Amino acid sequence: MRAEIGDRLHVHSRSVGQADQVAEIVEVRGADGAPPYVIRRDDGHEALVFPGPDASVEPKPGPETT
Fold first, then answer.
1. How many angstroms separate the CA atoms of 49 and 36, rounded?
2. Beta bridge partners of 16
3. Full domain range(s) for residue 12
4. Does residue 64 lie in a domain region?
């Protein structure tokens, strides 16, 4: 798993009826984009995470092209 600042960490729900969790990666502490990551949730909460196999990294959105 590799990430850059600004990417989104998507943790897939393991239970029916529970929403997935998505947060912005604000710091990458591992070498070459590897975990752990400091993430910021939409409510402003920040945490240090070591993502498991139920997580994926979504690239940060690029500039919109018209």
1. 6
2. none
3. 8-58
4. no
The SS3 call for residue 31 is helix
Asked, for residue 2, whether it belongs to a domain, the answer is no
Q: Is residue 66 part of a domain?
A: no
Mean pLDDT of 15-38: 94
Look at the chain and report how many structural domains it folds into. Answer: 1
The pTM for the full model equals 0.84
Q: Tell me the per-residue pLDDT of 27-58, one tens digit each, with 9 for 90 and over.
A: 999 999 999 999 999 999 999 999 999 999 99
Q: Which of 43, 45, 54 is nearest to 9 (CA)?
A: 54
Single out the residue of 6, 53, 2, 56 nearest to residue 27, CA to CA: 6
Copy the structure tokens of residue 30.
């591992």
Cα dihedral 19/44/2/10 (nearest 10)? 10
